[in-house]
Amino acid sequence: MAHKFVYAIILFFFLFLVAKNVKGYVVCRTVDDCPPDTRDLRYRCLNGKCKSYRLSYG
Predict the structure, then answer these.
(1) Rounded Cα gap, residues 41 and 26, in angstroms
(2) How many Å apart are CA 31 and CA 45, to the nearest integer?
(3) Where is the signal peptide (predicted)?
(4) Count of alpha carbons within 13 Å of 25, Cβ hemisphere only?
(5) Domain limits of the chain?
(6) What is the pTM of this model?
């Protein structure tokens, strides 16, 4: 029974650490500070943070 408790605690801490880092962002001053654009995503610098926009193909 102690093993199940230890596994539950490890799982809880792992989920907490992963969920804590979900809203990561890149600090920028210009568009050049943002990651390069990909085929489906475009990045722009707004309010000092890089924002991604998904392109939709009609």
Answers:
(1) 15
(2) 5
(3) 1-24
(4) 13
(5) 23-58
(6) 0.53
